[in-house]
Amino acid sequence: MSPTSILPSSHIAFTAAPSEATAGSLLTIDLAALAANYRFLASQTDHAECSAVIKADAYGTGLEQAAIALSEAGCRVFFVAHPREGERVRTQLPDATIYVLNGLVGDHSDEALGYICAHSLRPVLGSYEEIDLWQAYCERLGLKMPCALHFDTGMNRMGLSLKAAHTLSERWASTPPNFEVTLIMSHLACADEPNHPLNKDQLERFRAMRACFPTIPASLANSAGIFLGSDFHFDLLRPGIALYGGQAVNKAPNPMQAVATLESRILSTRKVPKGWSVSYGACEVTKRESRLATLCIGYADGYLRAAGSSDESKGASVWIAGHRAPIFGRVTMDLTIIDITDIPEELTEPGTLVEMFGPNIAVDDVAAHAGTIGYEILTSLGLRAYRRYL
Ligand SMILES: *Cc1c(COP(=O)(O)O)cnc(C)c1O
After folding, report:
1. Residue 165 near residue 121, CB atoms below 8 Å
2. Which residue of 112, 326, 367, 386 pairs with 23 in a disulfide if CB–CB is 3.0 to 4.6 A?
3. Which residues does 175 contact at the CB level (< 8 Å), separation at least 6?
4. Distance between the two ends of the chain, CA-based, in angstroms?
5. How far apart (Å, rounded) are the C-alpha atoms in residues 282 and 285?
6. Residues lining ligand 1, CB < 6 A?
7. Residue 47 CA to its chain's centroid (Å)
8. What is the pLDDT, as a whole number, of residue 8?
9. Which pLDDT belongs to residue 15?
10. How far is ligand 1, taken at its centre, from the CA of residue 238, in Å?
11. What is the pLDDT of residue 18?
């Protein structure tokens, strides 16, 4: 893999290394894979448009870079969590439709609402309080500004009830609102388990809500929801994790290409006799004479501590030139030790790059060893790795 370009990035200024050569670990973001994943997801439906969820720095891959690549792949509608994320996307994409999932974030002052309007963001409103605030703000400005409505179909996190859907549609039939509702949406709680009964329940509830607003476009499916079939597609797909190569559906083959590859360099290697313990807590002991390598990455780099190993439990693995090597002992703040006994010595020289996850080690495998999900690993990557964009 060789980078064709390094885009200017707000991250670079803060990373631990000023250049690729000086970096202990490299995070490579494959924007062509991101675009291919977008096109693949968009092709899973015969009638719906495909948006992109790019909250949390586009799941750790870089907000601006991801937004531009997705836009070039044909994406017109984006979802962020915070207004500030929306502003950053707006700077890059003057014509995009940008929804703010967390709605009227902030203290609800004119400054907070004005920030959303100034950048032509569309808040996703999920309560009567938010609707009233938006209504009052539109009234004061004399502008009919767009927004989305979030309905709760079983997640109990955000959104209005079915009763509210009836009440609002009746109210608006006699007095149309002084703002424009451009989307109604809900969010699936268990789409990653295709047979979970809540999927069908949520679908039925969403259909009932949608019937209250028959002319407004509707959106239900996150990444996993797309694979539940066309009943779940409505007018707009809303994938996040699958765009970034993560596993959307549990226990199914992952059809997506890896987008993020995290590599770290071998700092040093050593021979350790049989019967010696390694790393903090002396939790894992060599079962044979071993060769170990110490990598320039730890939990402060976002490589989770829980991915480590002990005599009782296996940890995650890494990939070196066609070989899999297991983590040995606890992951520490800045360093991680791996077992390279079975790998030819000439492949493990200090300075060698080792794949922590990417095309050969699925981010979801690392996550499973750490008792979490790929989402958490991607969004925890932080700023230490030197970033490059393909
Ligand atoms: C994060 C999020 C998504 C994307 O979910 P994925 O599982 O990453 O595809 C879609 N809709 C809402 C409301 C979200 O919060």
Report:
1. no
2. 386
3. none
4. 9
5. 7
6. 53, 55, 101, 187, 222-224, 238-242
7. 25
8. 44
9. 63
10. 7
11. 81
Closest CA to 319 of 382, 277, 374, 361: 361
Closest ligand 1 atom to 223 CA = 9
- How far is the C-alpha of 121 from the C-alpha of 115, rounded, in Å? 9
Which amino acid is residue 251, in one-letter code? K
- The confidence score (pLDDT) of residue 4 equals 44
| Angle in degrees, 0-180, between the axes of helices 128-141 and 110-118, rounded to the nearest 10 | 70
Please say whether the beta carbons of 3 and 28 come within 8 A. yes
Q: Give the predicted TM-score (pTM) of the model.
A: 0.93
Residue of 101, 153, 249 to test ligand 1 pocket, by largest number of atoms within 8 Å of CB: 101
CA 361 and chain centroid, separation: 18
Give the C-alpha separation, 86 to 83, whole Å: 5
280-324 confidence digits (pLDDT tens): 999 999 999 999 999 999 999 999 999 999 999 999 999 999 999
Q: Which residues contact 344 (CB under 8 A, 6 or more apart)?
A: none
Residues of the chain with pLDDT under 50: 1-13
Tokens of 160: 């209005």
Measure Cα distances from 304 to 290, 308, 366 in Å. 24, 8, 9
Beta bridge partners, 25, equal 264
Q: Which residues are catalytic?
A: 55, 280
3 state DSSP class of 195: coil
pLDDT tens for 287-297 read 999 999 999 99
Rounded Cα gap, residues 257 and 293, in angstroms: 29
pLDDT at 383: 77
Say which residue the tokens 């996307």 belong to: 89
Among residues 89, 149, 76, 151, which one has the least CA distance to residue 116?
89
Pocket test for ligand 1, best of 40, 53, 99 (most atoms within 8 A of CB): 53
Tell me how many degrees the CA angle 152-155-161 measures, rounded to the nearest 5.
20
User: What's residue 146's pLDDT?
Assistant: 98
The token pair that represents 79 in the structure block: 């979802």
Residue 296: the pLDDT is 97
Single out the residue of 338, 389, 387, 372 nearest to residue 23, CA to CA: 387
Ligand 1 centroid distance, CA of 239 (Å): 6
Measured in residues, the chain has a length of 390
pLDDT at 1: 41
